[in-house]
Write a structure and sequence with these properties.
The complex is a heterodimer of chains A (322) and B (497). Chain A has 322 residues and is an all-alpha fold. Chain A contains 13 helices and four strands. The N terminus and C terminus of chain A are likely disordered. The chains are: A mainly alpha (322), B alpha/beta (497). The structure holds adenosine-5'-triphosphate (ATP) and magnesium ion. Chain B: It comes from Chloroflexus islandicus.
Chain lengths: 322, 497
């Protein structure tokens, strides 16, 4: 495949530095873990890391687009929960797997679309709009399920979590698919390029004829869709849909995007960074598990890593502006 | 005529950015009680040199002496403590804060550890009043016009006890009246013993103010000396390194059929019943004071603001332009006056900035034809002589004048039928300005209808076929090229006919 000549950040030293720095940290982390634990560098464990990454990775892909526009989607965890609850319930009622899956994806996309409409037409700031959606979608989920998990899905559905395509576990394949499709969308289409313009300077974007509202609605729709897709993989693997599923996932996704080098002010960052960010976080989790570090510490370590990544970017950024 | 030790002495200062040597071994002096004018083409390195003095940019080599003592200026804060302040080319105020908050940012007067807001606003108002600037200290920056913001910026720089003040194109968004205020301030400061460095592309200003003139070209200092040793022609020649064709006004082109007609446009208090017609192949200049409503009219025609009343006809049909997107689809373009806030995508490349409007046009099934995009953009940037090491350069790294050219390129790429230009040559050097004027004429000759808003009367007079003058939201005069003079325009603009 040809390189992306217009990817807005090619040859830009800062982004290059970020990405290189991130890749370097990643490699160092892998090395350290390989030395510390002989169970780390095994094919089974590495596959495991990728599988674990799939859920957060897919959500983060959608979140990347949102953050690139200068927005934020806090509702992904709840949207995920409501979507899979609907999908799971339909399956339990005997709907065909395919249709149930489609219904779940449509729910995710639909909720995302509502977010987008609230933000553009009702002019509610993204933070507030998606916070509202977070509460509402979670509330509906709890109401519908009465707090009870839905379990026991058809084998055809569980394939999403446990099956494989040509030797590649389905979750990993789907994650790759999402990132490749996302990459095309972001770096090859006018839609993708306009996302960068919108995030960089919304006023100028409007005055340049960028269809700001349409773009925003689409981006939140994609984010909702990604959340639903990730959720389906998750419940297929667990063979159960808890009403509290996806709680706090928005933070993991935001963390991956930010560690991946995107800036909250929009117009800066990309999917490659996000993928690396998601992998880094999951590798760290995995390593801490292998080393038998208490899961309480995991949170702390994660926080420290995010802070370090941001410091690194700050350092690179200021050095190059001199 | 100069005192013994210069206030500022630069010795062999150099600075290289990736792909560009912005400043090449420059040695230069600035004296107290003198105004040094620094001139040069867009991208010559003037702003970079000032950024070095102000601690924003670190030189790669060379040394800086302040009153005979070698200093290291590693941050703007350090520069401030040394008594060096700068008025930046691009506005650096925080729009959400008030004038006073901006003025005392980071050095707010306090009482018992708390910010003393009354004192802050009192001091701010004092500074503004002393400078004769009629703006409230409690006004929010976002509510001020660009010109007013510029004055606030100047007032802020002056509120420090400065030994050296650098002004980077301070008048590029000021009208004559505000420019007068600024000149008065600058002269007053000179008398108080401050050393001033003044960057401008306007020869009249330079010769009105400067005691000494320094010319830069391609990062090098070509020459420096007393202003009396220069003439405007000589300065321009030194700047560009070649003889420049004067942008002579050409005979008026025969105009084509009407393409855009607006009747009785009304929007709030800014536009109170404006009717105008633009014809193919005609350049209409729009003059008036800042705040007369010129930009508002442009924004209404472009669908950027909502119309309260009035009708717009395009190519003989009534149209409803509800967004810039609608306008662009019809074939209307607008180069906005505030390039940083309304035009540039600072973090994106030169190519994405110049090609921003082309993305959809050059797509099939959503996929952009990047080869065609690059081709078109590079044709235009070459034609406009945009100085950039590559099209992948982030646009924020370009000099101010080159950023302006990138935005003009963006609209030319769309080949609109009607092009509205709001202060199109803001911050553009003499040579490039002549290029842009020639380009505007060429576009008109090809049949484009042009509406050019400008606060520079010579520019209006040199380029326009017909001139509209606005005052307080209305068109107060319409003059054809033959009858237009600076005086008549000014009279219509201030309302003494
Ligand atoms: N941070 C930066 N990174 C890379 N290149 C830069 C940077 N800042 C300036 N340059 C380059 O250095 C050169 C000099 O720029 P500078 O802004 O000093 O020009 P200038 O003389 O002020 O021009 P103008 O009249 O247009 O304002 C330009 O080619 C510009 O692109
Ligand atoms: Mg400059």
């Amino acid at each position: 495949m040809r390189s992306f000549p217009l990817s807005s950040d090619r040859f830009d030293r800062r982004t290059f530095g970020q990405r290189f720095g991130l890749a370097l940290i990643f490699v160092l982390l892998m090395l350290a873990l390989a030395l510390l634990s002989d169970r780390f560098l095994t094919p089974a464990n590495l596959t495991n890391i990728l599988r674990q990454t799939a859920i957060n990775g897919i959500i983060s892909a959608g979140m990347t687009l949102v953050i690139l526009t200068g927005g934020i989607d806090l509702s992904v965890g709840s949207v995920l929960a409501l979507s899979v609850t609907i999908g799971a319930a339909l399956m339990k009622q005997g709907w065909p797997v395919e249709l149930s899956v489609l219904a779940a994806l449509a729910t995710g996309a639909g909720l995302g679309c509502i977010n987008g409409v609230l933000i553009t037409l009702a002019r509610i700031p993204p933070f507030i709009a998606t916070l509202g959606m977070l509460t509402m979608a979670r509330g509906l989920t709890l109401m519908y399920t009465q707090g009870q998990p839905i379990t026991g899905f058809p084998a055809a559905f569980r394939w999403l979590g446990a099956g494989d395509i040509a030797g590649i576990p389905v979750p990993i394949a789907l994650m790759l698919l999402v990132f490749v499709a996302g990459g095309f969308l972001l770096y090859r289409t006018s839609f993708g390029m306009q996302i960068y313009l919108l995030g960089d300077n919304p006023t100028a974007a409007r005055l340049t004829g960028v269809p700001v509202n349409r773009l925003t609605v689409l981006v939140y729709t994609i984010s909702g869709f990604c959340a639903a897709l990730a959720g389906l993989i998750l419940i297929a693997r667990l063979d159960s849909a808890q009403p509290t599923i996806g709680l706090g996932y928005e933070l993991n996704a935001i963390a991956a995007v930010v560690v991946g080098g995107a800036s909250f002010s929009g117009g800066e960052g990309g999917l490659v960074g996000t993928l690396l960010g998601a992998l880094l976080i999951e590798t760290l989790n995995n390593g801490l598990n292998l080393l038998n570090v208490s899961s309480l510490w995991e949170q702390v370590v994660k926080g420290v890593v995010i802070a370090l990544a941001l410091l690194l970017y700050r350092a690179i950024g200021s050095r190059n502006s001199r | 005529m100069t005192s013994a030790t210069p206030r500022l002495k630069l010795i062999n200062v150099s600075k290289t950015f990736p792909g560009v040597q912005a400043v090449k071994s420059v040695s230069l002096e600035a004296y107290s009680q003198q105004i040094l004018a620094l001139v040069g083409e867009n991208g010559a390195g003037k702003s970079t040199l000032m950024n070095i003095i102000n601690g924003v940019v670190q030189p790669d080599s060379g040394s800086i002496m302040l009153d005979g003592v070698e200093v290291r200026i590693d941050s703007p804060r350090r520069a401030q403590s040394l008594g060096i302040t700068m008025i930046h080319q691009e506005l650096a105020l925080i729009p959400e804060l008030t004038v006073g908050q901006n003025m005392f940012l980071g050095r707010e007067p306090s009482r018992g550890g708390w910010i003393d807001w009354n004192e802050l606003y009192r001091q701010t108002q004092q500074v503004l009043d002393r400078l004769g600037i009629a703006i409230s200290a409690r006004a929010k920056i976002a509510e001020l016009s660009i010109a007013e913001q510029q004055l606030v910026e100047i007032a802020r720089a002056l509120s420090y006890q400065a030994r050296l003040i650098a002004l980077d194109e301070p008048t590029s968004s000021l009208t004559d009246r505000e420019t007068e205020i600024l000149f008065r301030l600058v002269r007053q400061l000179r008398a108080e013993g401050v050393a001033l460095i003044y960057i401008s592309h306007r020869m009249e200003e330079i010769f009105a103010l400067a005691d000494r003139i320094a010319v830069m070209r391609d990062g090098e200092l070509i020459t420096a000396g007393p202003a009396s040793e220069f003439t405007p022609q000589r300065v321009v020649q030194l700047m560009v390194g070649r003889e420049l064709q004067p942008s002579a006004s050409q005979p008026a082109q025969p105009r084509g059929e009407p393409i855009l007609r607006a009747t009785n446009l009304v929007a709030g208090k800014a536009v109170r019943g404006v009717s105008l017609t633009l014809h193919r192949g005609e350049i209409v200049g729009m003059a008036g004071l800042v705040g007369a409503g010129r930009t508002n009219v442009a924004r209404l025609l472009f669908g950027a603001d909502r119309l309260d009343q009035g009708e717009i006809w395009f190519e003989g049909k009534p149209v409803s332009i509800r967004s810039p997107r609608d306008a662009i689809r019809l074939g209307i373009g607008l180069v906005t006056e505030d390039r940083k806030a309304q035009g540039l995508f600072l973090k994106q490349s030169v190519r994405n900035n110049a090609g921003a409007g082309l993305l959809e046009r050059l797509s099939r099934f959503g996929f952009v034809n990047f080869r065609a995009l690059t081709q078109q953009v590079s044709d235009l940037t070459t034609r406009l002589r945009v100085r950039t090491p590559s099209l992948n350069q982030q646009v924020r790294n370009l000099s101010g004048g080159n950023q302006q050219k990138v935005i003009i390129a963006r609209w030319l790429a769309l080949q609109p039928k009607v092009l509205i230009l709001d202060e199109p040559t803001r911050g553009v050097d003499v040579g490039a300005k002549a290029d842009i004027h020639a380009l505007i004429r060429e576009l008109a000759a090809q049949g484009m209808a042009i509406l050019m808003i400008s606060s520079e009367l010579p520019e209006i007079l040199a380029v326009s076929d017909r001139i509209l003058v606005m005052r307080e939201g209305r068109i107060t005069a319409e003059l054809n090229r033959a009858e237009a003079t600076q005086d008549r325009i000014m009279q219509a603009a201030v309302g003494q006919e």
